[in-house]
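Help! Submission page says 'invalid entity' but I think these are all valid:
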Amino acid sequence: MKKITIRSAESADIDQIMLLEDESFHENIRESRAAFLERIAHFPEGFLLLEINGEVCGYISSEIWDGPENITGDRFTLGHRISEVHTIAGKELYVSSLGILKKHRGKGYGDLLFTELSGRMSKRYPISSIILLVSENWLAARKIYERNGFRELHRIPGFFNEGNISEGIVMRRDL
Ligand SMILES: CC(C)(COP(=O)(O)OP(=O)(O)OC[C@H]1O[C@@H](n2cnc3c(N)ncnc32)[C@H](O)[C@@H]1OP(=O)(O)O)[C@@H](O)C(=O)NCCC(=O)NCCS
């Protein structure tokens, strides 16, 4: 039987996280090792790993922003510094990334990680909403977000460049 565990990331997990990032995103839009290490050091509770029988098979990362006002495109920039925007007294959780190893996709693990992060963060912090940015082309991710009650706020034309250019969709759910 499969044993599924969800736990906070540690810096020692970085090689497996980079493997997940490589499998999940086009080379133009991958986060750097340094950005991930900073996220883990700064807010480990917001960076969860899903393990199947002890193997890291998925990750989700997040940070807490001060409030839902004045969210502009530059907030979502790749490689932005969590230390410049994260505040535990903030009102909005930003889910910055999510990835599952290819061989384990389509089995509900993405949804499970997402639900677990939302549950843990809303119990522990005074957040009143969750925000994220997804490419118009990432249909599996959009399905998870729509199923979890996210609604489109606005689009950022040309945000993603994966060889093809696509729109970024900013989505929010009030808690
Ligand atoms: C997005 C991702 C994390 C989802 O993980 P997962 O474990 O496969 O997700 P789940 O199994 O929980 O659910 C995926 C849903 O999308 C659906 N789906 C999968 N591929 C799809 C496609 N091409 N078109 C439409 N729906 C699709 C699945 O059928 C499932 O819906 P269902 O439960 O109603 O059948 C994974 O696909 C991934 O790592 N993708 C690359 C990185 C990425 O896009 N990250 C999102 C960043 S915003």
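Support: the input was valid. A stray whitespace character was the problem, and the output above is from the cleaned input. The first helix runs from residue 14 to 24.
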